Amino acid sequence: MSPTQPQTPVERADTAVVLDLRDAARAHRITLHDAPALQPQERLSAIATWQGRMVNEHVSARIFRSLREQAVDAGLSQDWRDRLARFEADELRHGGQCAAAVEALGGSARALLPALPEVPAHDDTDALEALLRNVLSVSCLSETVAVALITSERWESGPAALAETLRQILRDEIGHARFGWRLLDELAPKLGPARRARLSAWLRLAFGHLERHELSQLPSVAAPSDAAEQVGVCDGRVSRQLFYDTIHDVVVPGLERRGLAAGAAWQGRVAA
Ligand SMILES: [Fe+2]
Ligand SMILES: [Fe+2]
Description:
Elements: E1 10-13, E2 16-20, H1 22-27, H2 40-73, H3 78-104, E3 110-113, H4 127-156, H5 160-187, H6 193-217, H7 226-230, H8 236-257, H9 262-267
Antiparallel strand pairs: 1-2, 2-3
Helix pairs in contact: 2-3, 2-4, 3-5, 4-5, 4-6, 4-8
This protein binds fe (ii) ion (2 copies).
One fe (ii) ion (FE2) is lined by residues 57, 60, 91, 94, 169, 173.
């Protein structure tokens, strides 16, 4: 199957690359009839938060597109590859939904795209192990953490339209996380000890990268007001604790049950 292709909503402004999702925002338009009264700074914080999500979702689509190509090289069945194609379309839709939230809050669904490194090809190993490294990183680590964080954000959400947006995104992110855990369920029993040891060693880098990325996204300063929290501004300290709890209580035990030395990898994590 072929997912919805992006309409290349990026443009170059001098050297910076701008992501422009205003058309997508109109397609997913929402209205915040029941938003709390916001101070100007609270509104700006909420707009910046949803703009950041909009960028992250757009980047995620590109990652699943690369994973689908890797899945072909690794010989995964059509069913697994179809799921990755759906995930790419999901992430593009999420980008549009977050863009709609930006515009509903009074902002513009345009944002600078950060420099994007290529999704690692892992040329030092074979196609299956290369794919597994990236699936571990994307599904079992990042998407699993995203499920916990979005669940928490959904509970704090005030306006019905924002809560519904997060509900729909969460439903898809659960599928993106499960993909990795299910693929590992299928493949882990067939992985020999040498491959398991190499994947476990590689997890040290994946955990280091994840921690650095997540902490960069989660503010470490004071709690936002109730009104700001209702429109998406997260309490960074709470979110950081939730991140570590998810790693300790969900990700590490899940990987250990599937034969990977994830506890030692987390303890020995290194920033890439
Ligand atoms: Fe997403
Ligand atoms: Fe996702």
